[in-house]
Amino acid sequence: MTNDYTGIAKQYEKYRVVQGLMKFINKESLKEYHRKQDNNKAVGIDKVTKETYEENLDNNLESLMTDLKKFAYKPLPVRRTYIPKGNNKKGRPLGIMSYEDKLVQGIFAEVLQEIYEKIFLDCSYGFRPKRDCHQAIKELDNIIMRKKVNFIVDADIKSFFDNVNHEWLIKFLEHTIQDVNFIRYIKRFLISGIMVEGRFYETDKGTIQGGVISPILANVYLHYVIDVWFKYDVKVRSKGEAYMVRYADDIVCCFENEQDANEYYAELKERLRKFNLELAEDKTKIIPFGRNTEGNTETFDFLGFTHKDSKGNSGFYKVLHSTSQKKLKAKRATAKQWIKENMHKPINILIKQLNMKLSGHYRYYGISDNYKRMRSFTEYIKYQLFKHLRRRSQKHNMTFEKFNKILEYNPIVYPKIYFRLW
After folding, report:
1. Which pLDDT tens digit goes with each residue over 107-137?
2. At what angle do helices 347-365 and 400-409 cross, to 10 degrees?
3. Nearest Cα to 210, choosing from 327, 102, 285?
4. Three-class secondary structure of residue 283 per DSSP
5. Other beta carbons less than 10 A from residue 296's beta carbon
6. Distance CA 180, CA 187 (A)
7. Which of 84, 200, 206, 290 could be stapled to 149 by a disulfide with Cβ–Cβ 3.0 to 4.6 Å?
8. Is residue 4 a contact partner of residue 24, using CB atoms and an 8 Å limit?
9. What are residue 168's phi and psi, to 5 degrees?
């Protein structure tokens, strides 16, 4: 049995607030969420896996529900680890929760999703069902191609997930949610703390990256800080047309008039400061962009792609989207390191695993007009594979002829376009 959340939507449509949400945190919903978990996920500080939790599943869930009902349940600190991120030696911080916290947060996140999908605006795409990065790029492409756009404000928020203000976030949630106990547990999630190499650190701000509930909480925060402000204030006051596309904390705004773009940029800094956020000015810029900016060579990056003014084969204006040089460089470095570390595996297994990685790359970057950039990445991978196979041969007798013969029986997958913008 799974939760039927339709009552939440009906309640919001009638009263514009929701109550009685704790009833959705029940044994059946927790068991269902448990079934969805991956068997191979990293463990939190509790060292509990899905397999070990399942050994005594009913008793574990009964005990958990007893604690939840008594408000004796307290989330454990999140174990912080780091995953590779380009050339960043330290890597990207990732929070790994204890197993029960993952289950509880998962149901809380589902409830919040059901509430806020009725509230969120169409301009936001990140961490929402059926609204992915490709759709965000397509929407941005449609705005620039079809609307009166002459200037772009490419904005970046500095360390957004680390600086979300808890007091403001709770105020935003309480605007719609009138369930004291539900809010009480969200507060506990936010201040559960982190463990880094055995040391505990308090979390008095921010949402833990890697937390199940963090994406929806981040979207709630930015909905009120950015989206609502842009739609009902910035857009209304603009002398010309104004549009925005936001994917999580990546924001691109399109303006008809330069004055509107400049005023928005100045006001954005003050707006973010009010909510304890900061604009990353070294990554934020105003550039001329659009069909009326003939000869413009300015570009901007959004969601791993570089976007620039261009013309199609027919001579008409279009926006060209290609893998950003920064991302391509990082992807090449990561792939080169992986091949180096795995070069001694049997060739058929090595290429099979490499193809899985390449397929993932193509599925993300395989959008209209980006085939050449993807193909250049494939050729780079082939060269690195040849170089490392030759290096592992003691006599360096791996020739291009032998290498090509290997690829006949173990072919490298080639790119294709998975998402068409037009």
Report:
1. 999 999 999 999 999 999 999 999 999 999 9
2. 80
3. 102
4. helix
5. 14
6. 11
7. 290
8. no
9. -65, -40
